[in-house]
Amino acid sequence: METNVSDYALGFVLSQVSDSGKNLISFDSCKHIPEELSYEIHDKELLGIVWDFKRWRAFLLSLSSPFEVLTDHASLQYFISSEVLTSRQARWAEFHFSSTYRPGRLTTLVSL
Fold first, then answer.
1. Is the model's pTM score more than 0.85?
2. Which of 41, 44, 49, 96 shows its CA 20 to 30 Å from the CA of 8?
């Protein structure tokens, strides 16, 4: 899953990696609702990932191993390994994934 978030919107591309490359499963985007506009950037980035997860919840929770999320926000590594979460972050912690930092200039599939 590749995700990207701006001050006003979020988007994702869900793909499956095979021997022949990446196969597109889904993509989508939406504007932030008014309450989300005041979120700190790390929470907006995490919200973008969780929004993607909720759209594909049944599929992602059925996977036998953690799935990979590519993001241009390096601090999400902290969320995955953190033992202290805000109440909002704790609600978002049910999914088992690994996060890989990819600089924004290399994020070509999702651009907002």
1. no
2. 96
Gap between the terminal Cα atoms of the chain: 16
Half-sphere exposure of 70 (CA within 13 A, CB side): 18
Q: What digits encode the pLDDT tens for the residues 41-95? A: 888 888 888 888 888 889 888 988 888 888 887 777 666 667 787 887 777 677 7
Which residues are 23's β-sheet partners? 16
User: How does residue 39 score in pLDDT terms, banded at 50, 70 and 90?
Assistant: very high
Q: Count CB-CB contacts under 10 A for residue 26.
A: 13
- Where do the domains of the chain lie, and which CATH numbers do they carry? 2-106 (3.30.420.10)
